[in-house]
TrEMBL record:
Protein name as annotated: peptidoglycan lytic exotransglycosylase
InterPro entries the record matches: 3D_dom (IPR010611), MltA (IPR026044), MltA_B (IPR005300), RlpA-like_sf (IPR036908)
Superkingdom to which the source organism belongs: Bacteria
Chain segments annotated as transmembrane: none
Residue ranges occupied by any Lytic transglycosylase MltA domain in the UniProt entry: 129-283
Reaction equations catalysed: Exolytic cleavage of the (1->4)-beta-glycosidic linkage between N-acetylmuramic acid (MurNAc) and N-acetylglucosamine (GlcNAc) residues in peptidoglycan, from either the reducing or the non-reducing ends of the peptidoglycan chains, with concomitant formation of a 1,6-anhydrobond in the MurNAc residue
Family annotation (PANTHER family): MEMBRANE-BOUND LYTIC MUREIN TRANSGLYCOSYLASE A
Secretion signal, residue range per the UniProt entry: none
GO molecular function per UniProt: hydrolase activity, hydrolyzing O-glycosyl compounds; peptidoglycan lytic transglycosylase activity
């Protein structure tokens, strides 16, 4: 009897182990970057797309490439600037209606994988609108700060190549680089920095911090871009996680849900927002072409539904990236921006533009997609030879 029980227990253990192994195989954890050469015919939805906006965005990225040295790297896998010269020269003379033909003739696609994982998450961001005044009065009470005195930004890759794409910021005190205070202290005590203007809505200002840039409409009717200038060196925390920990349902969490909760709980709003220690400092710029966004991390104006924020520790800014998926995916983007929450080989943040419609679309954008990088053919050939 005991022997039968032991055999039964052994069988159960084997079945459990087999089940665990099957679950592991069907639900792989993201692994390191892998590149798989493919053809344009293998890109889901490519033939139905219209990459004219991506061509325009790529032309702007090429203007940045033109100022770089031939030997400068383009991310970790996309070769050197010299490899991109010919494609950029051709792009400058390409008309929008010939965009697809240009990309197909100048580039070869490779699928971006994270180990055995083929899909990643794609969220959205936008350029928010806030109301402000250059003087403190009435509803205009919340300061919007420029760069603090003594702020030092450090590119860690200059010290360790393995830290490419990682930066820290702080101030020097007694020969040591220290971070600036966290959000809670800056909000409550202020900071030694110029006040650019005063905002009328602290929640709207918080979302400006999250998005990184936006536009301000002053009480005299004039407007300006509010562009990212620096950060306090503290880690970013998504307050959606804070609300989930407080009992707000995870399912359906979005920008709109977060905003509604903050407005409905004014006594708790500050404490929740302050769980994000990160704090952004800005600079004012002319609006210029109102159809374009503020400048992204690559230094070029962002193009709605054609610019993408990526993990630049992996992907080189300026790289064309086709994202396969349902609308608004299923199109070609250009990597032109970065974000504190954008980490990993298959992760992206779609730029939706400016205004209420852009905010609504960006706030609910959260879907899975597949990444394909378009690389100069010589670069793709070298990668293929290494496979």
């Amino acid at each position: 009897m005991r022997r039968k029980s032991l055999l039964a227990l052994g069988a159960v253990a084997l079945l459990a182990a087999a089940g665990a192994g099957l679950w592991w195989w069907l639900n792989p954890a993201p692994g390191p970057l892998k590149l798989k050469p493919v053809t344009f015919a293998e890109l889901p939805g490519w033939a139905a797309g219209h990459p004219a906006d991506a061509l325009t965005a790529f032309q702007r990225s090429c203007a940045v490439f033109a100022k770089k040295q031939d030997n400068d790297a383009v991310g970790t896998y996309a070769g050197r600037i010299a490899d991109w010269r010919e494609a950029c020269a051709t792009a400058s003379n390409t008309k929008p209606e010939a965009a697809r033909k240009f990309f197909e003739s100048a580039f070869a696609p490779v699928q971006i994988l994270a180990g055995r994982v083929e899909q990643g998450r794609f969220t959205g961001y936008y350029e928010p609108e806030i109301f402000g005044s250059r003087s403190k009065h009435g509803d205009y009470q919340t300061p919007v700060y420029g760069t603090p005195k003594g702020l030092v930004s450090v590119d860690l890759s200059l010290f360790r190549p393995s830290l490419k794409g990682e930066k820290i910021a702080g101030h020097v005190e007694n020969g040591k680089l220290l971070p600036f205070p966290a959000r809670a202290e800056i909000v409550s005590k202020g900071i030694d920095a110029p006040v650019l203007f005063y905002a009328s809505d602290k929640i709207a200002l918080f979302f400006l911090h999250i998005q990184g840039s936006g536009r301000v409409i002053f009480d005299d009717g004039t407007q300006a871009r509010v562009a990212y200038a620096a950060q306090n060196g503290q880690p970013y925390t998504a307050i959606g996680k804070t609300l989930i920990a407080r009992g707000v349902p995870r399912e359906g969490m979005s920008l709109q849900v977060i905003r509604a909760w903050l407005k409905a709980h004014p006594q708790e709003a500050d404490a929740v927002m302050n769980t994000d220690a990160s704090y952004i400092f800005f600079e004012l710029q002319p609006v210029g072409d109102a159809s374009l966004g503020a400048k992204g991390a690559q230094g070029v104006p962002l193009t709605p539904l054609a610019s993408l924020a990526v993990d630049n520790r992996i992907h080189g800014l300026g790289t064309p990236l086709y994202v396969a998926g349902d609308f608004p995916l299923g199109r070609l983007f250009i990597a032109q921006d970065i974000g504190g929450a954008i980490r990993g080989p298959i992760r992206g943040d779609v730029y939706f533009g400016y205004g209420v419609k852009a905010e609504n679309n960006a706030g609910t954008q959260n879907q899975m997609g597949r990444y394909y990088a378009l690389l100069p053919k010589a670069v793709a050939a070298r990668l293929g030879a290494k496979q």
